[in-house]
Write a structure and sequence with these properties.
mainly alpha, Rhopdopsin 7-helix transmembrane proteins, 2 strands
Length: 245
């Protein structure tokens, strides 16, 4: 559910940037976090109170999990919901982000006069950026599926824990999902790789590169929109120099 919340945050930032600051104010963020945690814990209330299943140790899989009570348990429902809903939300959000960015770039290109050579070069560069964006989105989604799909299958198909080792391996894969995203970003984005190198391989502070930042093709969507938003904010709130000087 945390991943769903972050994905929706990215979608609003990119697709509806004009309302982002209104939606993600401090009080709203606190409310969202509280609601998210309340919802997640609420889903576990029935087994916690022993109303539908119960929580306890499952010796074969060495895990504290949801056990059956009166031959009934919400385990299958929770795993199906916890996997399918995030998958649908992530796919829809990232698809909308991709088409929003693609539409924005096409609109900008149609309103810009360039020579045939520059238009061709810009089209090739845009295509490369779109492919890089698509690849990063695909890898993030596949990482999520690879991490949680085995856990869902094992808990739904083998709810009697007939093969404990499969449950242990599936749980380890699910836990690994918390650490794979930094590696995904480093693998798919040059800017992240450069930042990691400066962070771990250099004692000098990280400084922005000189020159026009808009010419950097490896800039992520988040960085691109945050840069534009911050630039607009600075230009709007920076006072003009006085003529008295």
């Amino acid at each position: 559910m945390n991943m769903v919340a972050i994905t929706l945050n990215r979608y609003i930032l990119i697709a509806h940037n004009n309302i982002y600051d209104k939606v993600y104010q401090r009080k709203n963020i606190l409310f969202m976090i509280a609601s998210l945690w309340t919802f997640c814990f609420g889903m576990l209330t029935p087994p916690l109170l022993g109303i539908w299943g119960t929580l306890g140790l499952d010796p074969p899989s060495f895990s504290c999990t949801i056990l059956k009570k009166d031959d009934s348990s919400p385990k299958k429902f929770l795993f199906l919901f916890g996997f399918l809903f995030p998958c649908i939300a992530i796919v829809v959000s990232y698809t909308a982000i991709y088409y929003k960015v693609k539409k924005s770039r096409m609109k900008m290109a149609s309103h810009t006069n360039r020579t045939p050579l520059s238009v061709t070069s810009k089209g090739i560069q845009t295509k490369k950026e779109d492919m890089r964006l698509t690849r990063m989105m695909l890898i993030i989604f596949l990482g999520f599926v690879f991490s949680f799909f085995p856990l869902m299958i094992v808990n739904v198909a083998d709810d009697q824990v007939r093969v404990p080792m499969l449950h242990v391996l599936a749980s380890v894969l699910a836990w690994a999902s918390a650490v794979i995203n930094p590696f995904v970003y480093a693998f798919t984005n040059r800017q992240y790789r450069t930042a990691y190198k400066k962070l771990f391989c250099s004692t000098s502070p990280i400084r922005p590169a000189k020159g026009n930042t808009h010419s950097t093709p490896s800039r992520t969507l988040m960085t691109e929109f945050q840069y534009n938003a911050s630039a607009a904010y600075v230009s709007k709130h920076t006072p003009l120099p006085s003529n008295d000087d």
